[in-house]
Write a structure and sequence with these properties.
heterodimer, A: mainly alpha, B: alpha/beta, Rossmann fold, 6-stranded mixed beta sheet, 4-stranded antiparallel beta sheet, 14 strands
């Protein structure tokens, strides 16, 4: 597992220039923009970059050699989820520091206690995207997974607008759910998001293991 | 010990159907034409593909079920796959160090210098020979007991090939219990290294023989049409029509040397074996 994390870290930092550009952009946003956008932006970028390591593993038929190294397929999958979570958390920390520096520079008053639960909620929310992307990437590979992801998000959009159209003029259970959530305390919302994320991660992890066990290289 | 027991793998019209054994302390070669099934066999042994029928076991355990710890005693190099080309040797050293408790960093670094492999260059900027050397070095520098090599010298010049073969010899010298399974097109590589040879053709093993036996007992007979008609063909394995008459491949050189003193007998080699057993009639 440690060797795999080392590999992914090294593959990620092999693209230093891109990472530097992302960081400078985040720095500028953190100083110039109000709100916690920078934190979300950096966390999202980190999840995308982490997922990209699967493409690097796959590139040039690399999977075949990789699977001869001393770990089993289950460990490979486990490491990907852990790596994405680590990267998201690390990016969130950097984003949070930039956010508070930005606020200090602008001399805006920030209520840390009030803001923190919602800021922390960004980690599981962004991590959810990796939870969706990892099995798709493993199943379809880097090129086909883009198509699979587009279809997936199209389905979500159809479901969203379909529900909206279906319930037009009537009481919409989704709107009511959002209203109920808005009335809850931030700590409860955070716990609910973590619970949903944990459940989704469990399902996604099982799917990924199944995909990897069936794969031939 | 590696045991391939009635392994069957189907890819469309192609069917691999083989059994073989690689005992501890031996160097086994797999030869055959392109598409014969050499790489499929190696991938099955490495657990990269699942057999449709049969079993592949390494030290008694199914190859596809080996744990990370059990895989630490195996070193593998594949002809078309390796570490990500975005990495540098410095990265590879750190990764191998974390993956294998027995990784010998000093040995690896020393050999990288000897083979003129740049530490700070990305693998994608390496030549074919440099990549091949890196693959072999990565496989042997963690003191594995079994090396599985798919075409480790393919596409390399004589000097690079010799360097890689020297690495194998040194690896074997360090511990006599070590085994190597390698596939190759280049007969001279196998002749100088392997204890026994499997010839695969159209997914089947058509010959399994000790290398010494091939070199001492096998021969190519060059005979004219008249002699060919009278020839006792009991020990002829393959025949090919040539401009001078026939080239016949035999596993009993001595028999023909004693009974047909006038015919030309050339010492058999692995190239002849492949050519006559898979290409002749």
């Amino acid at each position: 597992m440690l060797g795999l994390i080392e590999k992914d870290l090294r593959l990620t930092f092999a693209r230093k220039q891109i990472l530097l550009i992302f960081f400078i952009m985040a720095l500028i946003m953190g100083i110039s923009m109000d709100g916690s956008f920078t934190v979300g932006y950096l966390t999202m970028l980190a999840t995308i970059i982490s997922i990209k390591t699967i493409s690097f593993d796959e590139y040039d038929n690399g999977f075949a050699f990789l699977m001869t190294l001393p770990f089993d397929r289950k460990t490979y999958v486990r490491e990907k989820y852990l790596f994405c979570l680590m990267m998201s958390a690390a990016a969130w920390c950097i984003g949070a520091v930039l956010y508070f520096i930005g606020n200090t520079v602008r001399r805006s008053e920030v209520n840390l206690i009030e803001e923190l639960p919602m800021l922390i909620a960004l980690i599981p929310v962004m991590y959810l995207s990796s939870v969706i992307m990892i099995p798709i990437q493993l199943k379809y590979g880097s090129e086909k997974s883009n198509i699979a992801l587009s279809i997936f998000f199209c389905c979500i959009a159809v479901l969203f607008f379909g529900t909206k159209a279906f319930f037009s003029g009537r009481s919409n259970p989704v709107t009511e759910l959002i209203r109920t959530i808005e009335n809850l305390s931030p700590a409860v919302v955070l716990l609910a998001i973590i619970a949903v994320c944990a459940l989704a991660s469990g399902i996604s992890y099982m799917l990924s293991i199944r995909i990897m066990k069936k794969k031939e290289f | 010990m590696v045991k391939v027991d009635k392994l069957v793998k189907n890819y469309g019209d192609f069917r691999l159907d083989i059994s073989m054994e690689i005992p501890d302390g031996t160097v086994t070669g797999i030869v055959g034409k392109n598409g014969a099934g050499k790489s499929t066999t190696i991938k099955a042994i490495l657990g990269l593909i699942k057999p449709d029928e049969g079993h592949v076991t390494i030290n008694g355990k199914e190859a596809s079920l080996l744990t990370g710890k059990e895989k630490q005693s195996i070193g593998a190099a594949l002809s078309d796959s390796g570490f990500s080309s975005y990495l540098r040797i410095e990265d590879v050293i750190c990764i191998l160090g974390k993956m294998y408790p027995t990784f010998d960093e000093d040995y690896f670094r020393k050999n990288c210098v000897l083979q003129r492999l740049a530490f700070d260059k990305r693998i994608k900027d390496f030549s074919t020979g440099m990549r091949a050397k890196l693959r072999v070095l990565a496989a042997i520098s963690h003191k594995s007991e079994l090396l599985i090599m798919d075409e480790p010298t393919a596409g390399l010049d004589v000097e690079a090939r010799n360097d890689i073969l020297d690495m194998f010899r040194q690896y074997l010298l360090d511990n006599e219990k070590r085994s190597i399974l390698l596939s190759s097109h280049i007969s001279s590589d196998l002749e100088g290294l392997c204890d026994d040879i499997y010839l695969i053709h159209d997914g089947k093993i058509i010959i399994h023989e000790d290398t010494d036996t091939i070199l001492s007992n096998y021969a190519l007979l060059k005979i004219n049409d008249d002699t060919y008609e009278k020839l006792d063909k009991s020990y002829i394995l393959g025949t090919k029509k040539e401009h001078f008459g026939y080239a016949c491949f035999t596993s009993e050189k001595q028999f023909y040397a004693e009974n047909y003193p006038g015919i030309v007998i050339e010492r058999g080699n692995i190239d002849d074996l492949i050519l006559m057993m898979t290409g002749g009639r």
